Amino acid sequence: MTGAVVSVADIEDAARRIAGHVRRTPLERSAALSELCGVPIHLKLEHWQETGAFKLRGATNAVLSLSGEERERGVVAASTGNHGRALAHAAKTAGARCVVCLSALVPQNKKDAITALGAELRVVGKSQDDAQVEVDRLVREEGMIPLPPFDHPHIIAGQGTIGLEIVEDLSEARTVLVPLSGGGLIAGIAAAVKARSPKTRIVGISMARGAAMQASLAAGHPVEVEELPTLADSLGGGIGLANRLTFSMVRDLVDEVVLLSEAEIAAGIRHAYFHEREIVEGGAAVGIAALLAGRIEICGPTVAVLSGRNIAMDLHARIVAGADGLEDSA
Ligand SMILES: *Cc1c(COP(=O)(O)O)cnc(C)c1O
């Protein structure tokens, strides 16, 4: 064993810290999926979280864990997606300075969403890597605190509070289906669920197009994969070659990883819309999609975590009209 792992006690601390700052989301039984699978299927409606994704839990826990002096120095990240939004929101709540670094290629609506939450923007270079160089500079020269999207103990513990809620609401859950990218979400949920209910299976689900954690598990160490356009855009990106926490936690706690095609993910978005009346982004639809595709071994009550709803609505409209991928205009 190397390095610290996040324990259920850390996750219980996180739950106390973030209570009142984030929503405790409902767990709803899906009539359509329960009928299809022959066991109760429940959906954890985490896409109802403020800012539209679960990342507010980890970001809030991390920001509220800072000392007064650290809050003064402020927090910084390079994400323009759900983590950047969550961090800006959490920093505003805590009265901390927040800088989000991004490249000149990021569209104006995403910039507006971040400045609307009171964060400062630094526009640098033409890629995510250039933005990360600016993060590193602000940490080095201005003493800002970097809060990355997944590989950080307070971020993982915050996401793990979802696992505590699942076990509280459905102690008989036998399988939990969790979207998987950098692994902060599934590492936290697995640490919480396995501590309370050791026999419950934890299944990670990624898109086949650029599944960095699955490739790293297969190699036995973190590896880079080519990043490809996918409907599950919030599941893209690497796990970091210098990954400290999530790789080993996923390796040790997650029972199985399932990879899905773009058409399977599109079918998950459609099912959520027409049968559950929920709008979810591609990365959040993968649990439903894996059940529909018959890719999950059914062994009792099952929970699928719906992780976010921040999909461009014109893309959502094309998918519900029948498109099976980003380029398919159906
Ligand atoms: C970030 C994100 C994920 C993946 O979380 P990781 O901790 O990187 O595995 C899944 N769904 C949504 C909507 C996200 O924003």
Report on this model:
This protein is α/β, with parallel strands linked by helices. It folds into two domains: 225 residues, Rossmann fold (3-Layer(aba) Sandwich); 91 residues, Rossmann fold (3-Layer(aba) Sandwich). 45% of the residues lie in helices and 13% in strands. The chain has 14 helices and ten strands. The strands form two sheets. It has a six-stranded mixed beta sheet with strand order 1-2-10-7-8-9, sandwiched between helices. Strands 5-4-3-6 form a four-stranded parallel beta sheet. Helix 1 crosses helix 3 and helix 12 crosses helix 13. The longest helix is centred in the middle third of the chain and has 17 residues. It is globular and about 55 Å long.
Summarize the structure.
Helix content is 45%, strand content 13%. The protein is an alpha/beta fold and 330 residues long.
Q: Give the class from helix and strand content and strand pairing.
A: alpha/beta
Bound molecules: pyridoxal-5'-phosphate
Q: List low-confidence stretches.
A: none
- Strand proportion, as a percent range, falls in 5-15%
The number of distinct β-strands equals: 10
Total helical elements = 14
Rg value: 19 Å
- Which overall shape is indicated by the principal axes computed on the Cα atoms? globular
Which CATH first-tier class of the largest domain would you pick?
Alpha Beta
CATH architecture label of the largest domain: 3-Layer(aba) Sandwich
